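Illustration 12: Hemerythrin-like domain-containing protein.
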Amino acid sequence: MASTTPLYTDTPLSLISTPKSQNGQDDPFTKEASHMALSHNAFIRGFNSIYQQAPRLLPADKLDFVGYCFAWIECVKAHHHYEESDLFPNINKAAGCTGLMDDAVHEHEAFYGGMDRMKAYLQSEGANFSAAELIIIMDSFKDALHSHLAAEPPAIIDLARYSTPENPIDILGIAEAAGKKQVNLNFMFNTLPVFFLNMETVNFEDGMWHEVFPPLKGLARTVMLKLVPMWQSRRWRFVSCTPEGTVKHLAV
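Figure caption equivalent — predicted structure in token form:
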């Protein structure tokens, strides 16, 4: 039976292109910037999925939906915390400079207030929240959020000028090491599905990232995309994409 709910669409925030699709390069800085763009698109789809479904909720959906919103907020904030606490300082250390990504940190501050208001509102109201009020709060920070998500990958590309034969910067290694520090069991089961299940890879950029990013293969892919989301499954029904990497019909 065909779904009676609309198909997810990339609105109100548009997706961002990967640097690799734009410059055709395969150097480490282009790779890392592209991985960041793909991650940012997962945040964008998460935002859009909340925005599109909030006005459609039935009372019975609301508590699960609040949990989904909390997971999205936590995922975005954890990503930026990892940047500020590990990624950016280690880039500075490798380059022998300071403040190379200060602009990105200031951009984080531009939308943190709105995200904090969103979380506080949902904590206060719980299942009694107003969809209209939630949308107003999201509208207050969506432009600053999108501007940052679009600006950061090119900033990673620009770091290549600090990497020299005498002092190479292992940008991929730095990013991988910093990212691993963020994952624990609580994060994996209660937050990470909002990241993996908001990734459309089959059609995006002609499928060039399908089964390439996220870099999960075999059993690990099955565990993260299908088994882990069985925990809190009512929360994850609001995601925008299937485990196979295609957009899906909205849950409500």
